[in-house]
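Exercise 4. Each item below gives a protein and its sequence. For each, produce the structure-token representation.

Item: Dihydrofolate reductase (Flavobacterium fluviale).
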Amino acid sequence: MIIMIAAAAENNALGKNNELVWHLPNDFKRFKSLTTGHHIIMGRKTFESFPKPLPNRVHVVITRQENYKPEGCIVVDSIEKAIAVCPENEDSYIIGGGEIYNLALPFTDIIELTKVHHTFEADTFFPKINKNEWVLVESEENQKDEKHLYDYTYETYIRK
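Answer:
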């Protein structure tokens, strides 16, 4: 299965200047729990936003830069090639950024979305989920608290 995983605001904002514009520790824990042990597909800018590669995951980086070869990563130049290098019988995760989400949407089976209940100024956005193509099958609301400045909801969509 190809699973898209993201956190997006009410206005579909993902981030600004290659950084998230909120901090939700529980969402980071959920991301780690779901993606650990799997292939994760991302664009170069997303990969470069990490201080170091994420442990216990196979990084597949999409870039048009021919000599881009970060250690320990599989580098490809298209979403089709990224998906092709992932094991067919296992879950693989699309983790961003905005351009990669748009390219990967036609290949995606499941969307794991954390909806952050706020709007933010951003330069990168998550694609609009077409309700004619996707059905919400699970929703878990979470209230803001001392560690989370915003209410947020975990949403799981499957393709119709």
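Check: Helices lie at 25-35, 44-48, 79-84, 98-104.
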